[in-house]
Amino acid sequence: MGPVTSTLPATFKAVQIDRFGGIDSMHYREVPLAHPAAGQVLVRVAAAGVGPWDAWIRSGNSVLPQPLPLTLGSDIAGTVVLTGEGVSGFDSGDPVFGVTNARFTDAYAEYAIADASMVARKPSTLSFEEAASVPVIGVTAWQMLFEQAHVKKDDRVLVLGGAGNVGAFAVQLAHRAGAFVLASASRRDAGFVMSLGADQVIDVREQSFDEYRHSIDVVVDLFGGDTLDRSFETVKPGGKVVSAVAEPNAERAAASKISAKFMLVGVTTSTLLALSELLETGALRTRVGEILPLSQAHVAHEMLEGRKHAPGKIVLIP
User: Do the Cβ atoms of 269 and 98 come closer than 8 Å?
Assistant: First the structure.
């Protein structure tokens, strides 16, 4: 373990829940500081990202077991202060970004313990707030495209939700891979999505998929529901549908002779480094929306539930 410094506090501020429920279940409180175990690092958090999965965990709808009490949040950017046994490649003072753990908890805090295998050196050209906006959404887009759908040059890719946080990364990454990118977005967001590299934009609330019937190699779904169901008609036999939000209809997929699967993201150092290389040079960009103090995490969750806010990733700063 790295040296214990006298500057580390005995306690720190965090946003926790003792029960699953609404926004009123969130508490901003003092919690005791723990030291990292083997394979972990202790990070002084400079910024923590906020995503819909945080609200799913808070409300008790996580697909993973979540022992209570727990600290919400998973996306972090900050500075390593201690390293656990067996950790190599990180030293005290290193700026890092990534996620805390496989349960997507413990990030809304002044300090967070993270699995060393789920963080990487922060891109030097990004602020801590920008870096905290990347991990879950960036890795989700990467894994959907390249590890699940195996997108390659000249593939035709339909991104359902191209203006959203994951969708914006998916559009950029598919474009960089040489794919033809069709993205769904509202008319208001069409210009933004085209600036990311989309070749065409479709508003699925106003337009049908008729002209794209059996013309798409890969659907990246960030909508679910009826839009996901209707998108099946766009896919060529042998094509693929990957969803990050819903389990696709297996019987319908089989009838259409396509592959359709749900994907739960698994953040790794190697994927973060691949994204970091693109972010460093500006070949990939992220969009930060609202930046709020950690003590106002409840406001961030109100935004997740519909309170008006700027487009982009919501970020908390301790």
Answer: yes
